[in-house]
């Protein structure tokens, strides 16, 4: 959730997700709205003319600053023209930005698209149990089809029905974001990362108040937050490496991440999740993720010993090809990814978007659980080894 969201008057204060502007919608940056001042009267016409010209020049040379109350369109435009900003593109491989997609991201995207089509995502042993739910035949895994996805792990059908019922209630009774987060989204993440029998380092944090450290924030960009982070919990030996790195390289907030919220200061963030209610602005969610990722890439550059002026973003810091995120709008879960810049253009590119599942149907919940397991594998088997190697190889100050 972002500071731009409308406050929920009925929600308990415990679920007040992010700081918000006052009802007057005034922020310190709004003082920049007045770009010129009336000059004092001069004693001659020529002096008056010169003074007016100077005032006009001064006024026209100033660009209005964006604030958390600025429209997403204005904030996207600001990001496009800032060296510390970002740009956006589509996953459509026929687009002009297709060459910027790393091979590893293409591979992940292919799997997520196949999962979303429900092509072979369910084990054959569930066919009879799901006979009453109108599941298409091709959704069941067939070992004779080489293109089928590997088997994923799934909870009992009672869990699937429970999630479906919770999501339906939130939708029909127009629950606000905090309810969706607690009743539905956290329930799904809880099973994938804690209750599925998988014993890996990836876990989730409900971190709606995690601010970006100012050293990493893109220039002239309002602070942005996300709702959940999937972080890699380190073993003691790795944690010692991180603590030593944070101290020796004088990292802001002594944090391994771009935020010092809670234990995210020592557990690397792999995947970020921004949530919205049905009908809320997708552009606002994308803007939050893009700003958050731009800051995260700058943090990775610092961790890699590539500390540079604030207006420069180091490309491919740590050897990490991209950062994934999920945008959840009510029932619909979508995948986006941010690719670092290059030597020609240091701005990262945020690619959007691929639906991975939905809590609006039984089959949609199954595909969502499968997609999250695929992303969990990416975080633990691809991202984590590269991150650890980069951290251990970072030079001391």
Tally of DSSP β-strands: 7
Mean pLDDT: 79
H/E series: HHEHHHEEHEHEEEH
Low-confidence stretches: 2-61, 309-316
How many individual helices?
Answer: 8
Biggest sheet details: 7 strands, mixed
How far apart lie the N and C ends?
37 Å
What class do helices, strands and sheet pairing give? alpha/beta
| Main sheet: strand order | 1-7-6-5-4-3-2
Radius of gyration: 24 Å
Strand content: 5-15%
> Any idea what the shape is?
globular
Name the helicity range.
Answer: 25-40%
Give an overview of the whole structure.
By secondary structure, the chain is an alpha/beta fold. The protein has a domain at 87-119 and 199-392. It is built from eight helices and seven strands, in the order H-H-E-H-H-H-E-E-H-E-H-E-E-E-H. It has a seven-stranded mixed sheet with strand order 1-7-6-5-4-3-2, sandwiched between helices. The chain starts with 44 loop residues before the first helix and ends in a 5-residue tail after the last helix. Mean pLDDT is 79; it is low at 2-61 and 309-316.
In a few lines, what is going on in this structure?
The chain is an alpha/beta fold and 397 residues long. It has a domain at 87-119 and 199-392. The chain is built from 8 helices and 7 strands.
List keywords for this structure.
36% helix, globular, 7 strands, 7-stranded mixed beta sheet, alpha/beta
Topology (SSEs and partners):
Elements: H1 45-61, H2 72-81, E1 87-90, H3 103-116, H4 157-172, H5 177-195, E2 202-206, E3 228-232, H6 236-248, E4 269-276, H7 282-303, E5 323-329, E6 332-339, E7 349-358, H8 362-392
Parallel strand pairs: 1-7, 4-5
Antiparallel strand pairs: 2-3, 3-4, 5-6, 6-7
Helix pairs in contact: 2-7, 3-8, 4-5, 5-8
